[in-house]
Amino acid sequence: MPAEMQTPSAVATAASEPPVKPYVPWARRWVNYLFFLPLVGLTVAFYGMVSLVCGLWDKNGRQQHAVARAWGRAMLRVALSPVTVEHAERLRVDETAVYAANHLSYYDTPLVYAKLPFQFRIIAKAPYLQRSGQVPIDQTSVRSGVVSLARAARTLEAGMPIMIFPEGGRAFNGEMQPMMAGAAWMAIKAQVPLVPLTLVGTYELLPIHVYALKPRPLKMIVGEAIPTTGLTTRDAEALTERLFAVIHATYVTEHG
Predict the structure, then answer these.
(1) Which are the contacts of 76, defined by CB distance < 8 A and separation ≥ 6?
(2) CA dist 198 → 9, 122, 249 (Å)
(3) What is the pTM of this model?
(4) Which residue from 23, 98, 106, 147 puts its CA 20 to 30 A from 230's CA?
(5) Per-residue pLDDT tens for 42-91?
(6) Whether 115 contacts 81, CB under 8 Å
(7) How many C-beta atoms lie closer than 10 Å to residue 140's C-beta?
(8) Which CATH architecture has domain 3-8+81-255?
(9) Long-range contacts of 210-213 (CB under 8 A, 24+ apart)
(10) Which CA distances in Å does 16 have to 10, 13, 102, 170, 183?
């Protein structure tokens, strides 16, 4: 995302501290080497191949999304990590919205695919993912970034929800990072609600740069939709601060 679309947050300054790699006991390392990691690799390879085959004819991405949902569920089963969805009634299948979540772990993506009960598209950095209906983001310049966001807004206007991790990358130490304003900008541009999703437990399951799963219960807490009717893109930064505040407060309450 263009630097001009980033929104700093005083609460997230801890994320800039040098990351401390969690200690993994030798017994858990070997359980992962012999059990979890081979199963994860096989799961990713199998569903990846199925998705590639579907991509030969599935140009709008609907079948590939179904494959991704199956992949997400399989990944959670492999990790022995059940997921509780709180306030699931706020996930309105018949309403287009931008869904924005905190980003703690590689396992965030399987979780949202497994638990969001409708078709959606993600903002993808890799251009080739456009074949599966995802929305590629070009970060080479401010102009390119705005064009990419405008493309995403048109996807919303066509009735397809979008899922995004506004922090732009996984947390180094479990603390939220500053959010970029792209999610708010898209929601305002398309005049659709912005829905906060708070993910809890995925950092402890699989922190960044740690290749050892620690099975545990996970949560996805669906926040109340934030309306954007009447807002302009000049309000994107303020809306992003509000989004950050909601997700951060929920995470602190749940995580402690």
Answers:
(1) 82, 83, 107, 110, 111, 114, 218
(2) 17, 17, 9
(3) 0.86
(4) 147
(5) 999 999 999 989 988 887 888 999 999 999 999 999 999 999 999 999 99
(6) no
(7) 9
(8) 3-Layer(aba) Sandwich (3.40)
(9) 210/21, 210/22, 210/24, 211/32, 211/37, 212/24, 212/28, 212/29, 212/32, 212/36, 212/37, 213/32, 213/36, 213/37, 213/40, 213/79
(10) 11, 6, 16, 12, 22
Residues 6+ away with beta carbon under 8 Å from 237? 7, 181, 184
Instruction: Let me know: does 98 contact 112? Beta carbons within 8 Å.
Output: no
* 19 vs 14: CA distance, rounded Å: 10
Tokens 């999610």 belong to 183
Rounded Cα distance between 256 and 247, Å, is 13
Contact 32, 208 (CB under 8 A): no
CA–CA separation, 47 and 157 (whole Å): 30
Q: Which tokens is 220 given?
A: 């996805």
Residues recorded for the chain: 256
Q: How far apart are the two ends of the chain, measured CA to CA in Å?
A: 30
- Pairing, β 194-200 against β 218-222: antiparallel
Give the pLDDT score at 140.
61
Q: Which two tokens stand for residue 237?
A: 């930064």
Q: Are 239 and 184 in contact (CB under 8 A)?
A: yes
Average pLDDT for 181-189: 93
- Tokens 């996984």 sit on residue: 170
